[in-house]
Amino acid sequence: MNAPYPFVERRWTSPDGLSLFARDYAPGPGVARPPVIAIHGLTRNSADFEAIAPLLAQSGRRVLAVDVRGRGLSDRAPDPMTYMPDVYAKDVLALMEQSGIDRAVFLGTSMGGLITMALTAIRPKAVVAAILNDIGPEVAPEGLTRIAAYSGQPVEIGSWADAAAYAKRINAVAFPHYSDADWDAFARRIFRQQPDGAIGLDYDPDIAVPIRAAGAKALVPNLWPIFRRLARKTPTLLVRGANSDLLSADIAGRMKKAAPAMAYVEVPGIGHAPMLDEPEARAAIFEFLSEVD
After folding, report:
1. Which of 93, 144, 149, 83 is nearest to 116 (CA)?
2. 0.90 exceeded by the pTM?
3. How many CA atoms lie within 13 A of 6 on its CB side?
4. In degrees, to the nearest 5, what angle opens at C-alpha 246 toward C-alphas 250 and 174?
5. Following DSSP, what letter does each residue of 203-224 receive, concatenated?
6. Is 139 helix (H, G, I), strand (E, B) or coil?
């Protein structure tokens, strides 16, 4: 078995003083190409990219997989109302400034795609290309309701077996083919064991405060104008899980109509959101990036 591809633990400071974390994968040999900044979904962290990030790095691109504030090894925010896409976007811009990066490819899963669109609105020249993983300028209400139902809710976990059972209960609809070993690996990405042995979800439950405060309709504003500007002026790839309940086939179809040049791939048998280790997703990403300099 090959050893895991190494990454450096990188920290940077947000505009409001939080210490934030990223996995920094050095590029393999070859001509320097714009780096990839990978941004995870609402309740997840940088571990979601542990399959695709090493492959991207080996292909010659530096990869920074971030822990958005309140997740993973990044600080929790004293003010939960800063758990918002525009704040996250400014955090990412701070990472770029402190890392000497002017332009990057953005790979955003779910909320990470919303952050990518927010970045487009704030500093469009920073986005050399965008990969939107199972997210669009609007979301299907059934998917949003499902995610809101478990986000920030307390869960009692006594063992890694309990953690795997929780991961399966929440995500089996998206990954019906997963084995027990897959669910154990999944659990170890979304839970963290503390020094005292306690196992807990690896995010601040207060990330749900703005969701509850905004309500479902106010939570996701009309992002169609920003999406059109992104996808018409910047190389964009949309990845959709064929069974996704957040990015419906109807929404994806309207995105393709609004941006005919946008690349598109549908991952069969997968819901929200593809892990990007699926052969179809991986092939589409590398084909797309082969044209991005």
Report:
1. 93
2. yes
3. 3
4. 115
5. B-GGGGHHHHHHHHHHHS---H
6. coil
